[in-house]
Amino acid sequence: MLRVRPIVFTPNLDAFTDTFTALGLRQVEDAPGWRVFAADSGHVALHTAEQPSLSFSFEVGSVTKFARRTAEAGTAAVVVDTADGPAAQVTAPDGRTFLAYEAQLADAAPVKEGLAVMPIWYTTDPAAGAKVFSDIGARQRISSRTGSWIGFVAKNGGLVAVHEAETDGTQLAFEFTGDITVLQQRTPAATILIDENYGRSLRVPNPDGGRIWINEWQEDLYGYTRDTGS
Description:
Layout: E1 3-4, E2 7-10, H1 13-23, E3 26-31, E4 34-38, E5 43-48, E6 53-55, E7 57-60, H2 63-73, E8 76-82, E9 85-91, E10 97-102, E11 114-117, E12 120-123, H3 126-135, E13 139-144, E14 149-153, E15 159-164, E16 169-171, E17 173-177, H4 181-186, E18 191-195, E19 199-205, E20 211-216, E21 224-226
Parallel strand pairs: 2-5, 7-10, 12-15, 17-20
Antiparallel strand pairs: 1-7, 2-6, 3-4, 4-5, 8-9, 9-10, 11-17, 12-16, 13-14, 13-21, 14-15, 18-19, 19-20
Protein name: VOC domain-containing protein
């Protein structure tokens, strides 16, 4: 059991709420300084903070079973106590850590049309990052033949991806299955870019600065390999 739920730490909680709502996400949790939104696939959380940042985070059926299976697969994982209760802490070979929390999860069918949460991990070693996602139970769905991009799907909703880069980092992104101009009509400040390598993508203003990327589902697989099950 695995669902993607990155956490956006931000001083602009209301502005992010407006952006997510415009994109069609549904608010499913609301507490002081904490909000969670559901996309058509996957969740994304907002947490009040003075400094903006993004943290990978997941939801699982049992943190104990998740930690054990992840460790058995080859990636360090232990159960830890947090302010929000027990969580499984995963440690990647480069020292990056992220948490998985228990939640009631149901199987999620692949999104035929709609928006999927897809945080991106930028790393100098995409193969190592891909192994971490594989070890936690995500299934590889598409990869570039050069190995610079490897995308995964979580059984209970959401996507994650590893992207080769000169420096490590994370980025909030989404994938849209359908005509991406539909989303542009909801967010007039957004712009569509066409890239010969990645197809069309929508760039939505990020309340903390920069842009949120929304990639259109790839039809053209030139230079890529798609898992037959995705």
